[in-house]
Amino acid sequence: MHPNQRRLAGPAGTKPELRFDALRQEWVAFAGERNERTFLPSTDQCPLCPSGPGGSSEVPLSDFEVVAFENRFPALGPDWVNGHPVRPPTSGCEVLVYTSDHDLTFAALSVERVRLLVEVWADRYRVLGSRPEVAYVYVFENKGVEMGVTLHHPHGQIYAMPFVPPVAAAELRAGERHMRRTGRCLHCDDAGREAASPRMVFQGDGMVAFVPEAARWPYEVHLYPLRHVSALPDLANPERWALSRSLLRVAKTYDQHFGFSAPYVMAIHQAPTDGSWSRNAHLHVEFYPPHRRPDRLKYVAGVEIGAGTWVNDTYPETTAAELRAAGLDNSAPEELPSPW
Amino acid sequence: MHPNQRRLAGPAGTKPELRFDALRQEWVAFAGERNERTFLPSTDQCPLCPSGPGGSSEVPLSDFEVVAFENRFPALGPDWVNGHPVRPPTSGCEVLVYTSDHDLTFAALSVERVRLLVEVWADRYRVLGSRPEVAYVYVFENKGVEMGVTLHHPHGQIYAMPFVPPVAAAELRAGERHMRRTGRCLHCDDAGREAASPRMVFQGDGMVAFVPEAARWPYEVHLYPLRHVSALPDLANPERWALSRSLLRVAKTYDQHFGFSAPYVMAIHQAPTDGSWSRNAHLHVEFYPPHRRPDRLKYVAGVEIGAGTWVNDTYPETTAAELRAAGLDNSAPEELPSPW
Prior knowledge:
2 copies of one chain form a homodimer.
Chain A: E1 17-21, E2 26-30, E3 67-70, E4 80-81, E5 84-85, E6 93-97, H1 111-129, E7 136-143, E8 155-161, H2 166-182, H3 186-195, E9 200-204, E10 207-210, E11 221-225, H4 237-258, E12 264-269, E13 284-288, E14 291-293, E15 296-297, H5 302-307, E16 310-312, H6 316-327
Parallel strand pairs in A: 1-4
Antiparallel strand pairs in A: 1-2, 3-6, 4-5, 6-8, 7-8, 7-12, 9-10, 10-11, 11-13, 12-13, 14-15
């Protein structure tokens, strides 16, 4: 475990359950106690602020850099599948608090702090992924009330899942077919093609960010290391810095483009930890901001939910150009501190 | 075409495009002009109200019962796939206005009006489905600003899709496997099992409504005719009345339970019209209300979007009991008018 990261609170005795949907052939997670979870508390009641030794928040410390602990209201595990327990009595749902400063956002963190987050993500991937019942370690952040956030304090989440979730599975299956047909990684081919397309947002430092050709969200961005690495622990030290700078650059570009602290989902896709499909996995980070214009949201509604087909009211070539223009006002990666 | 249904406005010259997402192996629909579409206009500017002969709304009539016309801001078609046109110059995206009364909701319609909607849905399924380029006719309603509705006037939508969309395809594939293994319809088995479970909300009249065992939304309801019919045109006359009464009952139960006119997505799943998988299709209607409590929404966020796994903060057995209790205050189906 990374020295800056400590494990504190345990789960609050919930009993989540996984059920298999025979119609869509997917697992759905049930966790009844979450419905009463803490909802947008006032700043002085924030459970993620340091409350000092013996304090009542989730972090009874005077201060911290980054802290990870089990979610008090876990969506997953210790799971019961069809009435049978399938996990040891730890949830595998972790909260990762980015800073002790309640009012910051990811975009406002120092590159050193983001570098530390990358380290913690890699560590939790290894530790949680080594459990026999864990098939996939999913690292993500929901930012903003538009994305359903219930605590404003900057934080992300880690779910250790006992199955490879559908989106990851779809990508891995597609990668397997592409590998069999061409002998190459689907993501390597895709990222290389997008880097040379009008959908490229920025590249350099061995990284490329682009609005994908078939983006579901107007300002969706995918961020890839161009080198084929399957998961965060495979990144070399300079690549970890490059990833940190690039993550910050995406978040800052959104804020610059929209003119406010923009909400988003940040989703990290890595190789499953159960050994399946590893050769096809290519580490990447997907960002989904919910805005289709600064004054309008895109809703996930009838077509997306009931049919599974996404409708995007913008063209990736247009939104990528807007993000490139906004990015010019950012610090370019080479201007950010390079501590190695 | 049904006599009460007239075709009026044509598409406004948009050029939607379908792109294939090689990573998730799904089509995504792009339609740039929709981003500037009419957004929550004042009642006197409503494009779905009758504006009289020569009027400026989409319906230049003095009055109407139900009216269907092509969406001025279609999400699909005439589609361009990777730069090549794949459809005739009609969109296959239709708006279906439920009533000339701006202030009604589906739940407030008469059973005769809902019966007429069933007739129009069946008619459009046949007419649109007979086009060679159409594989699936998807009928749905987004209700409420929480579901992204941009026009309050009560209306639904019909998308004639040139592919079988992912959710329908997943159900049909699961049905195919179940049929091969057991010789029976997956949906017949499932609906029969749910009808005898604590998740049943109501049954009778040859119909059953339940919160599915693996519901993604807290108050999700699936409504089935118990007889195996693959699409709306296969329903006999008494079954069309039974479906109309049951649809109203679901919508009224939501309003009664939540204490306000509840938002939802209503999605009708039927057989594809390209001839594929028909023996496994079983007509049903899925409702997804976004509330997890009367004062809180469920958000589709990081786990759902980035991993494809749904987290439900309630148990279907609990929410079904709540809906049954609310339903006791509704008119029972047998007390509604039975005009045959």
